[in-house]
Structure formats: structure tokens, C-alpha cells
Amino acid sequence: MITEALVLSAFLFVIGTLGVLVRRNAIIMFLCIELQLNAVNLSFVAFSRLHGMDGQIFVFFVMTVAAAEAAVGLAIIISIFRHYKTVDVGNFKLLRW
Amino acid sequence: MMTSLLESIGYVGWVLHALIWLPILGVGLVLWGEEEVAKKVAFWWSMGVLVLSLGLWWAFDPTQGSMQMESSTPWIETWGVSYSLGIDGISLFMVLLTTLTSALAILGSFNYIKERQRAFYALMLLLQAGVVGVFVATDLMLFYVFFELTLVPMYFIVGIWGGERRIYAAIKFFLYTALGSLLMLVGILYMAFTANELLGFPTFAYADMLQVPLTGTEQLWLFTAFALAFSVKVPVFPLHTWLPDAHVEAPTPGSVVLAAVLLKMGTYGFLRFLLPLFPVAAQHTTVVYVMLVLAVIGIIYTAWVAAVQPDAKKLVAYTSVAHMGFVLLGIFALTVNGLQGGLIVMISHGISTGALFLLLGMLYERRHTRKIEDFGGIGRVAPLFATVFVLTALASIGLPGTSGFVGEFLALLGVFETHPTIAIIATLGVIFAAYYMLPMVQKIFFNALDKPENREMQDLSRREMVILAPLCALMIWIGWNPTPILERMEPSVRLVLERVQAAAPAGTLGSVLEPGSSVVIVPAPADLEASDDLDGGDRSTDDD
Amino acid sequence: MYASLAAVLFQVGEAASAGGQEAAESGAHFEPFLPGLIVLLPLLGFVLNGVLALRHATRSAEAVRAGGELDLDEGGRPLTHTLPSLIGPGVLLLAFVITSVNFARMLGAHLEEPVVVTYWTWMATGTFSVDAALQLDQLSMVMMMIVTGVGFLIHVFSVGYMKDDPGYPRYFAYLNLFIFFMLVLVMGASYPLMFVGWEGVGLCSYLLIGFWFSDREKSDAGKKAFIVNRIGDLGFLVAMFYLFTTFGTLDFVPIFAGAEEAFAYGGALVTTITLFFFLGAAGKSAQMPLYVWLPDAMAGPTPVSALIHAATMVTAGVYLVARSSVLFALAPVASATVAGVGVLTALFAATIALKQNDIKKVLAYSTVSQLGYMFVGVGVGAYSAGIFHLMTHAFFKALLFLGAGAVIHSMHVAYHSTHSHEDGQDMRNMGGLRKHMPITCATMWIATLAIAGIWPFAGFFSKDEIIWQTAAFGGAANAPYPALYTVFWLIALAAAMLTAFYMTRMMVMTFHGENRTGDQEEKALHEAPAVMWAPLAVLAVLAVVGGWVNVSEHLRDSILGLGPLTSGWLHEWLHPITEQAQLIQDLNLGVLAESAPIVGGGEVVWAVLSGAAAIAVVLVSFRYVGGQKIVPAAEDVEPIGFAKVLYNKWYVDELYDRIIVQPILALSRFCWNVIDVGIIDGIVNGVGFAARGVGFVVSMFQTGTLNTYAFILTVGVLIILGVSIF
């Protein structure tokens, strides 16, 4: 049972990672990050069957952080969209120096 | 009368704190006030601080060589860092010099600084607080904090209000000096760990550090670390190239404070820390010779370089290096005359070079050029200006009857007692001083008044006379009657030298360079047991 | 007016002295009279004149800014001219009166030990201490009399000479300041205080040479004087350092008292010290190889040349050697150097003077030459003879310079009247001035005869004594280098003949023959006003009788001695000062010779011979030069051959420029451009560039594209995971 859950979690994580790496749309990338987080959450839940409730508590932490991150991240993306009229990350290289 | 008045207000108890915190309070006042009144607020505030500091002259006990007016409050208790202040004959005049030149420099920048005045005057006051802190701190960490604190305002003063290449100059200044002081920080930490281990409690206090017995090898390493930091500040050849750039690009008040007091922090460091804390290293033959030779090179080499400068401000900047060479020479003479002479040169250089920078700034305000060749015959249109400039220039090159002579004479006399050959070579600096200064004076103030722009030049204004008058008076007064100053310094100078001489006799010093040697400096017999288990090894590592 | 003012102050001073306000340590019987005031009065004059000068300069600066020049007659004449004319010479007269009172008192007393008046502690470091103290003894008294007396006469002359100069108050301010420092020099009771005066007079010399500072050449000359003097000052400083390490003090009295104990006769240390002192003396007194500044110093106003560059400042070196006579007596090698340099300078400068056409240049080289004689005197242990020649030289050379000043003044007026730009100092443009300026001509002839060494003028006695002492010293029982001194003696005799020649040449070219100034200009030539010729007259009297105060015993017994008119007073007077040196010399050298080397003959014989030879040279050269055809400067041709070398002063200035000035300049540029900017800043900037370069390369990884960052991040995580698992 746990093996299947972990395999699924790994698949989800890899999909999320690849999504972040190859997609250019900020919204999609953002969703992929969420996918990664949830893949991790799945692992936590799966492991909590073996090691007690700690994992499930962590899932709540991750969900809280993810919610906060979603709020801030979406706000940034919206303000970028307002300014540049696009959310394609290939169009801006602000993260230099 | 003065003494009793000071006593009645408990002057000695709070004056040192006031001299640091009042300028910082002034920073707030200036920032809080209006842009237009910033300069006046800053000036009168610094005048108040100056007047307050003058009381030190009477409150200071000239018979005592050790620290006076001491006070100490724990600051970071777990590390043993304390906020402790004190003053002795060496720092007394540095403090007075700081308060004086700061006030005059602020007055001298009234016309020069036209933009962001609040920020500028706030930084000047902050700088003053930092420099006074350097001179009165008796805790190594506190000293280091103040030492670094002075960098920040100076960096901005050069970088924001400077000339064309101000960014280059500011960064050069900052990196040069920060690099040096980081090495010193390592040294300070090493000393603190050693002290913690030997004394059993964490401390950064200067008085405790004096009790720490260090092996000769340790002393040499620490000496090198500290000496690099201070040599950059002084500056000692070949670490001097930041100075001309910083001076040329800095606005007038920046140059004045830089020359008059910031450089003194370097030589002050030599006197306050290097000699008493590392007496074995400080009298090690190689060390002494290296420092003396660098000083002599500084004196003669920079005099030559100064002589061919087309930019008047750069010329004076180079002469600063030459003058500080005399200070260094006096210090490493390790004689009473030498140290006293060095101190007088420090004071005299602060006054005369400060005045020269003020005067050059006034020239720049009038003509917007610093090129010597753009002037000529100024003496005819600005006779007062020329008179003051010639007097200042003569004090700067050490004409007898001015402060410069007393200092240079005593410093050279002191060196001659221990190193005659070096003293004779250094005396050549007297000739080369005339060789760089007189042509400049001639090309600016004498010769024909052949450039039409110069015919319009105004003479000194009343405000400018007020700035220069006290400096000129001091140059002549110290030239004819330096004894009141000398006698206040003497006990402290003797204390430093006694510490140096109490260290190992000169004959055994040759061995301290060898690794693993166990020449141990023991200041007090009580510490003998403690020093028995020293092996000069890596104590600092097993400490944490 | 001056006299009444002086009388009032005299009484005030007397009262003050009687009230015991003077902090004087009483000597044996000598009570100093207000010695501090002698020094302070010129300083006061400087301050007052300085204020007037600054006020005047500010006003003229306003005029320059307004686009013109200040008209001298406009307003302010009382403040710019009358007041300085009173203050400048006035303070000098007062100082002279007070000095005379002291002199009279000292004459009456039998002063064995110097009187030292201490005012305050100047510097005290704990191991070194020196007081601001004045020393009054026979030597300083002679110097004070010369400085204040001759100084006063020259101040009076200046009132006339500088009358129309726009810098009039500034001129008197400088002159008063000079007298102040000169008095500090001769009255200071320690070497450092003497050094204050030493450099102070150098400063005033610098300011006065460059008095007309708008002229590039003149301010260059001032600068040159200062820098060359500083080379000498180096020697003075180092000598002081040596003395301090030996004695632990720099006061005169303890040093001379302990010298014989501290130094072995002819020892290395005392030789070093005295040689360094002589370097200082050579700089200040324009001896070889540092004499080059003095001829250039003639750029200053002529009375300045008379006061500073003839009568007082340049003799400071001689004073230094005489003051340190004990040290020099202990160092025979150094003394021989002093005498040797002196005699070479005397000859060398005399040869240059032969071919100069500028009247002041002739006098300048003549001064260098005469200073050489003084050094010969003090170099052969005849310290009183050196001081004696110093004194007579102050009289006749001041007279010559002032006379030259009167001539130049007249010439300038003449050329000014026709707006001509001819050189008013060139003797080729003069000639026949005797008719127009009889008083100047007569007094200058007196001075010329004096300097030429013709009996019974002052120079005869003083120069003769030096020359004779050279011979006598070389013939002493244990003389160190007898042959050397014989050579010195011969050179000194030869140079004396040259002196007679070039001085006569100068007089003939200036005052005799046809006038070459120009037909129009000749009408404007005139005798100097009374305020100018009166000092000349006083000095002329001194140039005659000044030599009668120190006639050696042999001469006094002969017909040359003028019977009761003359005495050996100065020698006796200076005896307490020179006594110690004399004893050292007697002890080590034995008895001096009574007859000249090689050919024999006593002092009187040689005095007669040299006097007669001088007369002969004067007569012959009068006819020779008078017979020459001299053309005005504008029409003259460049001299050729050896005359050209002399005319160009042996090319010494050019040589110094090549081997010293230019190399140092080149070295300075090298230090700046190559070492400072190239190497040191190169390394500093190089480190900066290296840091930037590394940063640039590394920054390549920062593309700014989000995906790249994410990719690198992922790869990094995978690597770390891989490493930690396997």
C-alpha cells in the first residue's frame, strides 16, 4: 500500500519539477510548484502510517505555507502582468545582478 | 577658578559620554530640522561640543599618566564587551583636535555644500562622534566599532558630495581601510580568546589586555595584523594611494576632517595599542627598521611626488603622507623625545594641513579649479588670503616659530638618539618640504596676475577669517610655547615607553622570530604561574 | 623727533629697570638693560607695519578688481607712507639706543661669564629642555650693535629709496621682521633658538628677494635662496642632534664648558659636528658650493641687499663658527675645511666679479668673496679677526650697496623720464655719474678703498689681519698642514689684488669717463636726497675709522698704527669668548709663526707690501679701465674666450641645473607616474579588476531566466542527493 503511494508521490513530484523547468507561463509554473508540494504532502501522509502522526501535522504546515505562498506569488504575477501585459517568464530577465 | 567650576558640575563624570552622544543627538536634530537651517544647527551644535571639550584642558590631571575620567558599563556581558571610556595625555589632544576641526570644517562647508544639506551635516556630526569615540574608547571591541563607524560617514561624504571621480575614490577608500581593519578584528578576537583563557573571564577591556602575556611569536603576528590596519589609516608607504584620491575627490570639509583627525587614528593606534600591547614585537630590530625605513621613504618619496603634482589639493594630500612619516619616525624612535615630537607633529599637521585644505577649498569656491597653473598673482587681489596661506604653508614645512618645527625637531631628535643614520636621511625631508611647498605658493600667489578670471577674485570673507584665525593662532602659539602641551603628554608617553622597556631586553629579541620560541612577556610577577603552562601553541582553537 | 621719542622711552625703560621688573640674572657687574625689549621692538614694528600693509594691500586689491591700479597719492598717503616711515626706522633707533646702553654698561663692567636672561621654557619633553633665553656677552653685543646700528641706517635710507613703491608698508614690515629674527639669531642662548633666527632671517630674505613678487624671475630667486639655505639648515639640524646626544642639552654655556671633556682633540665626533655646522654656515653665508643663491638674491630691493645680503644675515655663518669657536678649535680638520672653502670661495667669486656688468652683481660676488675671507679668519683660529672683518665689511659693504642703490635710483628716474626700458643697473649704461652724484661718488670711493685694503681705511686692518693670521697659523710649531696654509695664504693675497681690481673697475665704469646713459636721460640724473645720502656719510666715516679699533700689536708699534688713534680693543673685548678656543689652540699647535712662510718677513713688512700692491692695482686698473672703450649695454657684444666663462659665472648654475635640479625633477616624475600611479595603484586597481573579472565570469550563470535557475537548482539537488546516497 505504502509503495504505491510513494510511487505516485514520486511521479507527481517529477511531473511538477519538469513542469517548472520547461514551461514558460508563470501561472503554469506556479501550479507545478503546487503539484510538487502536494507530492511531498502525499509522501508525508504515506509515511505517517509507519511513523505516527508527525507527518500529518507537517502536511498542515505545508498547506499553510503553500496558501501564503499562493497569495504572495499570485500577487507578484498579477503585478507583473499589469506592468508587462504578459506572464511569460522568458520575456523578463529581472533576476540578474 | 575654572577647575572649581568644572568640579561643581561634575564635569569629569560625564564629559566623555557627552562628547560622543551629543553629536549623535545633533544628528537627530539636524535631520529633524529644516533644510535651510541645517548648517547653522550643525555649526552651533558642534561649537557647543567644542566649548564643552575645552574644559578637558583644566579638568585633565597633568601629573597622571594612566587613564583618567574612566567609566565602564557592561555592553555585551556574555562576551565581556563593555562600553568603557577614558582619556590620557595621548588622547586628550586628539579629542580637542577633533572637536576643533569638526566645528571649523562645518563652518567651512557653508558655501561648498549646496545639496542635501541635512544629510551632509548629519554625517559630519556622526563622523565627529565616531572619531571622538575612537580616541576615548578603552575597550577593544568598542574601539573597533568606533573605528569602523568613522568609515561609513566618510564614505558617503566622499561618494555623494565629492568631485568627478568620487565613486572610485570612495570605494578605494572604503576597501583599503576596511581590508586593514578586518585583519585587526581577527587580532582583537584572538587577544580576547587568549585573555578569556588566561584570566578566566571574557573581556575586551584595554586594561585587561595589558595583563595578557603573549609569546614573542604571537606578538609579531598580532602586531602585523594591527599594524596593517593602522598603516592603511596613517597611511604608510606603500599603502598610501587611497589618500590622494580621497582627498582630491572629497568636499573641503571631508578633506579637512580626513587630514586633521582620521589619519591620526592610525598613529594613535600605534601609540595606544601596538606599543603597549606588543612591546616585544614593537622593539624587535626588524620591525623597528622596517617601520623606520617605510617612514623615511614616506617622507622623502612623497615629498618628491608632491612636488610634481599639477593639482594643488593632491599636492597637499601627498604632503600629509610625508608629515605622517615624521610621526611614525618619532613613534618608532621609542624615546621620550620621539614620541612627544610625533604627537606634536600630529597636532601640528592637523592644524596646518587642515587649514591648507580649508584654504584650497576657498580657492576652489572662487575659481572652480584646483590646477596650480590656473592661478598666478593671487597675492595682488587677495592679500589677506595670501598672507594666511603663506603662514600656513610655512607652518606645514616646519619653519621655526611655528608648530611644525617643534614637532619635526623633537621627532628627529628622538630618532637620532636611537638611529642616527635614519634621522640624518629623514632630515633631508626638511629640504624637500621647501621643494614642494614653495613652488606651489609661488605659482598660486606670486608671479604675474596674467589671467583675467583671477582679477575678479575676492579676498577672505569675515566667516572665512573666523575659521582661519584660531588655526593660525594655534600654529604660532604651539611654535613658541609647546610646553603646556608637552607636559600634559609626558606622563602618558613615559608610561608607554616603560611598558616597552619592561619587555625583554633588546639583546634577546633576535630569537622571537623563530617558531616555538618561548619568550614570554610577563607584566606582573603574579602572572608568572599562569605563564608557565604556555607553549606558544594553538590556544585559541580549543577555546570553543 | 626720533631722539625725543627715544629719550622718553629711555626714561621709561630706566624706571622699569630700576623697579626690578626685569627678570634678569645679574652678572658680575653687568646689569642687562631691557634686553627683551631690543628683540620685541622690531617685532612690534612688524606687527604695526604689517597691519598697515594689509590694509593698504586690501585697498589696492579692490582697485585691481575694479580693473585698475591704486594711485599712490590717493588718500591714504599718511597711513601708507608717513606712519611706516616713523615706525620702521623708529623701532630700530629705539632698539639701537637700548643696545647702546647695554653696550656702555658692559664696557664698564668686567664681564667674564655670559649673562643669560631666561623668559620662559620653550620646549620641555622631559629628557630635552630648552628655554626662550637671551644671551648677552661680548660677541652677541658686537653683533647687536652692528644689526641695530647698520640696520637703522639702512632703514633710514629705505625711506628715501622706496618712497614711491606701492608696497611701502609691506617693505618695512618685512624689514622689521628681519631685524627681529636677526636679533634672535645673535642673542639666542641656545642652538635651537639661534636656529629660529637662522631660519627666520632666511624666511625674510625669501620674502624680500621676492618683494616684487609679480615678477616671475624675482620670486624664483627668492625660492632658490630659501631652498639652498635649507640645504645648509640640514647641516645645522644634524649638528644639533649630535650635540644633544653628547651633552643632553643645547644651551651654549654648558656645551662650551663641557666640550673639552667630551671631545678628544681632533676626534671624529667633534669633527663631524663642526663639519655639519659648517654646512649650515656655508648655506647661510653663501660659501662654495652653496653660494649660488646670493647673486640671484640681488633681485630684491637694493637696501635689502645692503642689510641682509651684505651686512647682517650672510655673516650669520661666520657668527656661528665664532660662537662655536671651542668646538672648531677642537676639530683641526674641520677648521682647515672652513679655511679652505673660505679661501677658494674668496678667489672664485673674485674671478666672477671681474666680468660682471650689473653693479649689484659685482657687489654680490664681492660679498661672497669677502665672506670667504671671514671664513679664512675663523678657520685659522683667528676668531676675533673674523668678527673684525665681519664688522668692517658690514660698514663698507653696506655703504657700497646703499651707494649703488642711490645710483640705481637715479638711473631709474632718468630712464623713467623718457620711458626707456634700458637696464638701470648695468654699468655699461652709466659712466660719468661723478658730476651728478658727488656725495655718492665720494663715499663709495671711501668704501672701495676700504674693501681694496688700502691704508688707513677699515678694510686694510681687518683683511690684513686675516691674511697674516693664515700665514702665522701655517707656520705654528705643530701646525697640521703647513704647506696647505701657505697655499691658502698665497691665494688670499691674490684674491685681495683681484678685489682691488674689480672694485676699481666698478667705480670707473659707474662714475668716471663719459656718460653713456643717453642725452635725454642725462639731464634727469641727480644726487640722492638727504635722507639717502646721510646714511652714506655715516657709513663712510665708519668705513674709515671702523678699522682702528682692532690694530694688531706689531702694526700699532709701527708707523702704520696711527699712534694713539688706534687700539687693539676688539681683540681684547672678545677675549672672554675666544679665550677657551685660544687655549686649546696654543696647547695643541704651539707658538704661531712670527714670519711669513718661504720668503720670511714679519707682519708689518707684509702689511706694507700688500697695502702698496693694492694701491698699485687700484692706480693701474683706474688707468686701464679708464682707457678702455665702454659702450652702452644695448650696443655691446658678447664676450669671447675665457672672459665669456667668467661672464657666465663659470656656468655653475647650469651645472647645478644639469646634475641636481633636473635629475630630482625627473626622479620626482618617475616616482609619481611610474611607482605611484603605475605600480602601486596598478596593483590596487589590478586587484579590483581581477575581482570584477571573476564576478563577470561567474555572473554568466545568472541568465535572469527563471527556468535556468530552476534547472540549475534541480541539478544541484540531484547531485547532493546522489552524493549523500552513494
Number of beta-strand segments of chain B: 2
Strand content of chain C: under 5%
Alpha-carbon distance between the two ends of chain C: 114 Å
| Tally of structural domains of chain B | 2
- How many beta-strand elements of chain C? 2
Question: What is the CA-CA span between the terminal residues of chain B?
Answer: 55 Å
Structural class of chain C: mainly alpha
Count every helix of chain C, treating DSSP H or I runs of 4 or more residues as helices: 28
Mean pLDDT over the residues of chain C: 85
Structural class of chain B: mainly alpha
Report the helical percentage of chain C: over 70%
Most extensive interface, residues per chain?
Answer: B-C, 70 and 61 residues
| Estimated radius of gyration of chain C | 31 Å
Number of helices of chain B: 25
Order of helices and strands of chain B: HHHHEEHHHHHHHHHHHHHHHHHHHHH
How is the quaternary structure best described?
A: heterotrimer
Q: Please tell me the overall pLDDT of chain B.
A: 86
Indicate the topology.
The complex is a heterotrimer of chains A (about 100), B (about 550) and C (about 725).
Chain A: H1 2-22, H2 26-51, H3 54-84
Helix pairs in contact in A: 1-2, 2-3
Chain B: H1 2-8, H2 11-32, H3 38-54, H4 56-59, E1 68-76, E2 81-87, H5 89-108, H6 117-136, H7 140-149, H8 151-161, H9 166-199, H10 206-211, H11 216-233, H12 242-249, H13 252-277, H14 279-282, H15 285-307, H16 312-333, H17 336-367, H18 378-381, H19 383-396, H20 403-418, H21 420-445, H22 452-455, H23 462-480, H24 483-502, H25 528-532
Antiparallel strand pairs in B: 1-2
Helix pairs in contact in B: 2-3, 2-6, 3-5, 3-6, 5-6, 5-13, 5-17, 5-23, 5-24, 6-7, 6-8, 6-13, 7-9, 8-9, 9-11, 9-12, 11-13, 12-16, 13-16, 13-17, 13-24, 15-16, 15-21, 16-17, 16-20, 16-21, 17-19, 17-20, 17-23, 17-24, 19-21, 19-23, 20-21, 20-23
Chain C: H1 2-18, H2 35-65, H3 77-108, E1 115-124, E2 129-136, H4 138-161, H5 168-187, H6 191-209, H7 216-247, H8 252-262, H9 268-284, H10 293-296, H11 302-311, H12 316-323, H13 325-329, H14 332-353, H15 359-379, H16 383-417, H17 438-452, H18 458-474, H19 482-511, H20 519-522, H21 530-545, H22 553-557, H23 569-573, H24 575-589, H25 603-627, H26 642-647, H27 652-699, H28 706-725
Helix pairs in contact in C: 1-3, 2-3, 2-5, 3-4, 3-5, 4-5, 4-11, 4-16, 4-21, 5-6, 6-7, 6-11, 7-9, 9-12, 9-14, 11-16, 12-16, 14-15, 14-19, 15-16, 15-18, 15-19, 16-17, 16-18, 16-21, 17-18, 17-19, 17-21, 18-19, 19-25
